[in-house]
Amino acid sequence: MQKPTLVMSMILSASLAFAGSALAGDVAVKITPKLAGVDVMHNGKKVTIMRDQNQKATVNPDFAKTSRKCPPFCINPIKLAPGVETIGEVEILHYLAKMSKGDKSIMVIDSRTPNWVAKGTIPGSVNIPWTKLSPKKGASPIDIAEIMTGTFNVKEQEGLFDYREAKTLVMFCNGMWCGQSPNNIKNLLKFGYPAHKIKWYRGGMQDWEILGLSTAK
Q1: How far apart are CA 12 and CA 31, in angstroms?
Q2: 139-146, Cβ contacts within 8 angstroms, sequence gap of 24 or more
Q3: Among 111, 103, 129, which residue's Cα sits nearest to residue 202?
Q4: Strand 155-157 relative to strand 160-162: parallel, antiparallel, unpaired?
Q5: For 166-194, what is the mean pLDDT?
Q6: Residue 44 lies in a domain
Q7: Cα gap 25→38, rounded to integer Å
Q8: Looking at 21-30, 117-126, 159-168, 192-201, which range is the least confident one?
Q9: For residue 186, what is the domain's CATH number?
Q10: Which of 19, 46, 49 is nearest to 31 (CA)?
Q11: Which residue segment(s) compose the domain that 92 sits in?
Q12: In sequence order, which residues have a C-beta less than 8 Å from that of residue 109 and are 6 or more positions away?
């Protein structure tokens, strides 16, 4: 089971090497041996995602805490739901690179509340807080349907949803202990959103920050 995953990672790394930013070859801290950075659009401006070049840098204090009360901050499993693929950093960079080249069938979504997003997010992502898709937080079926049809390219006719042209959603939040993107994913699945069109970056901002990758506000 591990071999296909390894092969896929190698393919993604190779493709990213051509899709990414044309950076100098002497960058000391690369993302992969052949990839120094990836250009994405964030709020209408080009941003190059790289790793922090300061080799003495330490993790953002917001993500240095090791223990949070569980529940609600419990460790999520690797497999969140049947059919939903769990991905890592190289894979999410692959999706971001495709988006920057004009692929409008993909959306990278920061599922966190705005107070967290204000501290920094993955460049190229858009913020759809988990509360907007949660009936427990007051989101009505009409509210959720409007997000799906207005933002995710789901079609609706006579009360039925057509997901054939729905976007591939790449969701993340604060990390393996965070329930915000899992909430978004589980609620969308209840509405019939195809599991194969949902990708989950489990490591979220915790792993992103630990690896020193660029953030944007």
Answers
A1: 12
A2: 144/187, 144/191, 145/191
A3: 111
A4: antiparallel
A5: 97
A6: no
A7: 14
A8: 21-30
A9: 3.40.250.10
A10: 49
A11: 51-210
A12: 125, 126, 127, 128, 169, 170, 171, 172, 181, 184
Angstrom CA distances, 126 to 42, 97, 98, 111, 191, stand at 9, 15, 15, 9, 21
Rounded (10°) angle between helices 2-19 and 89-100 = 40
Q: Is residue 28 part of a domain?
A: no
Structure tokens at 18: 């051509």
Q: Cis peptide leading into 129, omega within 30 of 0?
A: no
Question: Quick one: pLDDT at residue 175?
Answer: 97
* Phi (first) and psi of residue 49, to 5 degrees: -80, 120
CA–CA gap between residue 163 and residue 68 (Å, rounded): 37
In a domain, 30, yes or no: no
Q: How many domains does the chain divide into?
A: 1
Judging by beta carbons within 10 Å of its beta carbon (0-12, 13-18, 19+), is residue 163 exposed, middle or buried? middle
Average pLDDT in the chain? 90
Peptide bond into 141 cis (omega under 30): no
Residue type, 61: P
Considering the domain boundaries, does residue 151 fall inside one? yes
Could you say which DSSP state residue 29 is in? S
Q: What angle do CA 68, 72, 76 make, to 5 degrees?
A: 85
Cα–Cα distance measured from residue 155 to residue 39, given in angstroms and rounded to the nearest whole number: 31
